[in-house]
Amino acid sequence: MGFFSYWLRGILFLTLLVTFSFAGNALSFDGSVEVITHPGVNSNYLSKNLLRSIFGMRLRTWQDGLPVRVFVLPDDAPLHSTFTKQKLNIFPYQLRSAWDRMVYSGTGQAPFVVHTEEEMRARIASTPGAIGYLSGSMINDSVQVVHIDE
After folding, report:
1. What gap in Å lies between CA 144 and CA 81, rounded to an integer?
2. 9 to each of 1, 12, 13, 23, how far by Cα in Å?
3. pTM summary value
4. For residue 149, what pLDDT band results from cuts at 50, 70 and 90?
5. Residue 17 neighbours by CB under 8 Å, 6+ apart
């Protein structure tokens, strides 16, 4: 192989390296995750235990009788992992295991899965009784931020 072939491989390698580093940055977020609800939900503060009951699909209605509608990102989404670890103090696989037990035993249902934060925000904003989470940079006036008491 001549010099030109090695040079071409080097350029290809650097191009791929730069491409994947930018793709990785596009999938990351600022590290903060906030619990959000539909603006009509009357709970601005939730305890960590209540939040676990909601996302564990054990709490089915809000205090005013409105059905709770839980929205989550896919299990492998970085924000989902951050949410479960920071806000619920459990691992994503533990949450999935609880949902699967309820679904397969016929005692409950799994949450609604959305594929992007934009979809999460839109679904929460348009669904009465909805709850979910977003990175801090994705929050706007269409949703309500809920504070979690330790």
Report:
1. 21
2. 11, 5, 6, 21
3. 0.78
4. confident
5. none
